[in-house]
Structures are given as C-alpha cells and as structure tokens.
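Record type: ASSEMBLY
Status: queued
Input:
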Amino acid sequence: MKMHILAVTLLAAGVVTSCSKKEEPKPVPAAVQPAAPVLQPRTGEPVTPIAAPKVADPAMVELGKKLFFDPRLSKSGFISCNSCHNLSMGGSDNLKSSVGHKWNQGPINSPTVLNSGMNLAQFWDGRAKDLKEQAGGPIGNPGEMSFTHDLAVSVLQSIPAYVDEFKKVFNADTIDIDKVTTAIAAFEETLVTPNARFDKWLNGDDAAITKEELAGYELFKSSGCTNCHNGPALGGNSFQKMGIVTPFMTKSKVVGRIAVTKDIADRFKFKVPTLRNVELTYPYFHDGSAQTLSKAVEVMGQIQLGKTYTPEENASLVAFLKSLTGDQPKFELPQLPPSSDTTPAPQPFGK
Ligand code: HEC
Ligand code: HEC
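Status: finished
Output:
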C-alpha cells in the first residue's frame, strides 16, 4: 500500500515538473505494481460473503459442543451428532445415505451442519423450522440415535458434571430436552465458515481466485445457477423443484416438500442446499447419487437449466465451487464428563 502511494506521488511529481510535455500517464511497470491498495468490496453480486460467527453466550456454546459430540444421547451409546455430521469432514458423513442405529441405512443424504443456521428451515423438506427444533429429531429417530427424549435427559441428569453445567448455563436445577436442544443449536450457530477465497475476491482481492475460477463464476451466473444458489450460503433460502427441465432419475422414494405441505405443487421440491464447502460434502443430492462435483454440475445443468456443458465449462464451474471452501470451525475437542454409577447403561447393537 505504501509503495503504491509512493509511486502515485512520484508520478504526480513527474507530471508537475514536466508540465509542458504531453500528460500521458506513464504506466507503472508490472514488477512494482502493488496489489490493490484499498480493497473495494464488490457490490451487486448475487453471492455475498459470510461473516464470522458471533458468539453471544460462550458457556452455552461450550455445553452445546459437548452434547453434539456425546454418543450417550443415543440408545447404543455409540452414535453422536458428529457421527453423521463429522466436523473433520465438512460437517457431513460423506456417505450416500447415513448409517444409524443397528446399522440402519437411512433414506437420505446427510446435509452439512456448517452454515446451517442460515437455512430458512431445516431438513431437505424443511420440516423443522430451526436448528433447535431440528436437534430433537435425530435423538428420537429409531433409525438414527434411537433414544427417547426422556431417556436422553435421564442419562444427562445422572452425570453430575452435566447437572452443574446446565445449572450454570440455564440457571435451573433440572435438565430437559428443551435445554438440550437450545444448547446444541447455540453451538451449531457458531459452525460458520468465513474467509473462503471466493469471499476474499468478493471483498475486493482480485488475486484471491484464479482465472478459471472466475470464468466458472461468470458461467454460474450467466447460466442461471444463481436463480437458486444465491445469497451468503449459495442456497438454503428457498425450496425448488429437482428436475425442472427434465425429470430427476432416482431410486429414492423421498418426495420432498410435499411431505410437509401436502401440496401437490411441492412434489420433488427440496431445500436448495448450500454450496459453501461443497468440495468437502460429497456425495451430492438428497439421494447421494452424484459421487463427484463434476457429476453434480453436469446433472444440475441438464435437469435444472437444459444446458450441456463442455468439459472445460464443467471444469471451470467445479473450480469455482471449490473456491467456496472457507475456514473450518476451529476448537478444542471437548472432554466429556464421565458417567456416574447411576447412569443407565448403553445398549450397543450387534451385527
Ligand atoms: C444417523 C445419522 C445422523 C445423526 C446421528 C444425526 N444426523 Fe442430523 N441429519 C442426518 C440426515 C440423514 C439428515 C437429513 C434428513 C432429512 O432431511 O430428512 C440430517 C439433517 C440435519 C440437519 C439439517 C441440515 C439442513 O441443511 O437441513 C441438522 C442441522 C442436523 N441434522 C443436525 C444434527 C444434530 C444436532 C444431531 C445430534 C442431535 C444430528 N443431526 C444427528 C443424519 C444424522
Ligand atoms: C431451479 C433451481 C436450481 C438451479 C437453477 C440450480 N440448482 Fe443446484 N440444486 C438445486 C436443488 C433443489 C438441489 C438439491 C436437489 C436434490 O438433492 O434433490 C441442488 C443441488 C445442487 C448441488 C449438490 C449440492 C449438495 O450438497 O448435494 C450442486 C453442486 C449444485 N446444485 C450446483 C448447481 C449448479 C452448478 C447450477 C448451475 C449449472 C445449479 N446448481 C442450478 C436447485 C437448483
């Protein structure tokens, strides 16, 4: 920045001392041209940067983090939220569809929990209105954690260190499922991934993305991908039909938003997934049928927009999507308090 100001000053001085000559500004040699002095954020783009998370109540977040990692919220004592939303793998399990209690293979792909606080609703069909409501689902789901809310609470209530911590955070003597899900949601709200290279570019750093990535973004916009994948999360903010131009071929029996609204117009509508960190959250689509990003882009182009991309176009779209990987949540792995003599025993499942 200083170098640039200096260069400008010298140039200006040059103009003054030789004012009788032609006033053609001398180009600054590439070698001394510094990076953009003051970064000018790009405005009017359909995609916007995400901000770092704000932590309102650190003690609540800390408790929620423990619960997120605690397998004792499952009947088997084996499955935690992190089993299927692995924070070492982009907040997903990288499986076609999730595996839960008794090795149950679930019907649907696990979406990432990263940036999920930005979603207009939770689940592919939006059946939970927010993270707190969502968090109660898997604990009681027979195919996931297979517990009951009462049993999960009684496990926590039997662990003195949890009782103390809930007391500290909620100022109440008893634990209930409402407090459990409130704390988990508070932790999830912090799972935000700022500083993707693409965000740096949006914030005015021209060098943050490559030519190919920029070409991919231009194509992403001009093709119409941004009709559905826009805003800070590039998704999460609307329900859209899967298969607008041509039908989506799938063996999955999942019907989408119609399951919630009973409105025939919502058949095969799904919450548009975020494309943040999409490089990490393979395989893709609610049925996990696209193993690679290249395949997902190909299918999207064809069935949503009626476009068939050349290999180069596909590669540039994929390159752009990979520039959306942000800083992954960084924290110390929580140490969970030990069970007590009265903690109900877990019931692990066999083969
Ligand atoms: C056995 C695997 C499994 C476990 C355990 C599990 N989840 Fe999920 N999760 C899923 C699947 C699969 C979905 C998508 C279900 C659907 O949309 O119908 C999902 C959806 C979600 C979503 C919605 C994200 C979105 O974009 O719609 C959130 C948030 C979430 N889970 C958080 C949690 C929390 C918190 C826990 C622990 C209390 C948990 N999950 C436990 C598999 C799991
Ligand atoms: C009409 C709305 C719409 C348009 C246009 C659209 N998408 Fe999608 N996109 C969706 C929906 C809905 C899904 C989830 C579909 C499902 O799994 O059933 C999705 C899923 C994806 C996924 C998979 C994400 C994941 O985590 O599973 C990628 C990648 C993707 N879109 C990229 C693109 C690209 C690239 C374009 C432009 C070529 C595009 N989309 C155009 C609505 C749209």
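Annotation: Residues 220, 223-225, 227-229, 240, 242, 244, 270, 272-273, 275, 278, 281, 284-286, 296-297, 300-301, 304-305, 317 surround heme C (ligand 2) (CB under 6 Å).
Annotation: The longest helix spans residues 2-17.
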